[in-house]
Automatic annotation (TrEMBL):
Its EC number is 6.1.1.2. This is Tryptophan--tRNA ligase. One of its GO terms (cellular component) is cytosol. Its main location: cytoplasm. A motif ('HIGH' region) lies at residues 10-18. A motif ('KMSKS' region) lies at residues 193-197. HAMAP family: Trp_tRNA_synth_B (MF_00140_B).
Length: 328
């Protein structure tokens, strides 16, 4: 089986956008790939975060991975900070990265363009650590959203550069972008990505939101005055976003949904989307509560760490030898 790897930062609460754009696909991919999924908590401290919040977010993320359908018998789930190999390879790849490359990366570029102060060196160099996360495991594919594809492109460049300098060492990964639901947008500003750091809470649906609250957010979602239910992200970003959400949750094509709603109004359409989200969250949260109560989280991470460490240790020792760190 080809190997696939991805991870999510435990910063903020997971959103419906995280599920549709990433986790839902992880669950599907675990059937056909040797799947490695990790909690990217080293990346979480590139911006300030309280200790208690980071711990709770990390536990919730693991439990939600499992509640969403990731099976530890099919997918290796592990905690990034428990494997020192990530930080070691991250430093080595930082020393093989160019300042210009890192300056072009989206997060740093956007924050500096806005004139933000207090930007950490970690935020500048984290793409090299992200490359290490991928290259440690010789991942063939990395499932990403549209806005994350840039990181895989840098990873490919670093892998090829290292291989050229030191000999064949890393598999050069391919990005895998889902055709539907790759990006879910804010319910209040449908030209912006639905984000864990959304300023307006009405724009984001958290996976741990009360289902009734989430339904209300759908009913108050921004639409338009055109009055036709069709998929047109340019002219009707709000309606198109709701179509993506409904299609992703009920496994019905957008074309079929549009056909069903020919001649019907936005109110009826929103009601179906809201009910679909309500039912999804109700079922998901029931599973989440069972997993938290069972103590399963610690067991899954312990076993996942052990399996991931075997691969990561072998790779970092090979890298150290090639760089010249091993004396004997």
């Amino acid at each position: 089986m080809k190997r696939m790897l991805s991870g999510i930062k435990p910063t903020g609460r997971l959103t419906l956008g995280n599920y549709i754009g990433a986790i839902r696909n992880f669950v599907a991919y675990q059937e056909d790939y040797d799947m490695y999924v990790f909690i990217a908590n080293l990346h979480a401290i590139t911006v300030p975060i309280e200790r208690a919040e980071l711990k709770q977010n990390t536990k919730d993320l693991i439990a939600l991975y499992l509640a969403c359908g990731l099976d530890p018998k099919k997918a290796t789930i592990f905690l990034q900070s428990d494997l020192h190999e990530h930080a070691e390879l991250g430093w080595i790849l930082t020393c093989n990265s160019y300042v210009g490359e890192l300056q072009r990366m989206t997060q740093y570029k956007d924050k500096t363009a806005k004139g933000e102060t207090g930007i950490t060196a970690g935020l500048f160099t984290y793409p090299s650590l992200m490359a290490a996360d991928i290259l440690l495991y010789d991942a063939d594919y990395v499932p990403v959203g549209v806005d994350q594809k840039q990181h895989v492109e840098l990873t490919r460049d670093l892998a090829e550069r290292f291989n050229h300098r030191y000999g064949d060492t890393f598999t050069v990964p391919e990005p895998l972008v889902a055709k539907v639901g790759a990006k879910v947008y804010s319910l209040q500003d449908p030209r912006k990505k639905m984000s864990k750091s959304e300023d307006n809470p009405k724009g984001t649906i958290d996976l741990l939101d009360e289902p009734s609250v989430a339904r209300k957010k759908i009913m108050s979602a921004v639409t338009d005055s055109i009055g036709i239910i069709q998929y047109d992200p340019e002219q009707q970003p709000g309606i198109s976003n709701l179509l993506t959400i409904l299609s992703s949750l009920n496994n019905e094509t957008i074309e079929d949904i549009v056909a069903r709603y020919a001649g019907k109004g936005y109110g009826e359409f929103k009601k179906e989307v809201g009910e679909c989200v309500y039912q999804f969250l109700t079922q998901l949260q029931s599973k989440y509560k069972e997993i938290i109560a069972s103590g399963m989280v610690e067991k899954v991470i312990t076993e996942g760490n052990d399996k991931a460490r075997q691969i990561a240790h072998k790779k970092i020792m090979k890298v150290k030898k090639k760089v010249g760190f091993q004396l004997f």
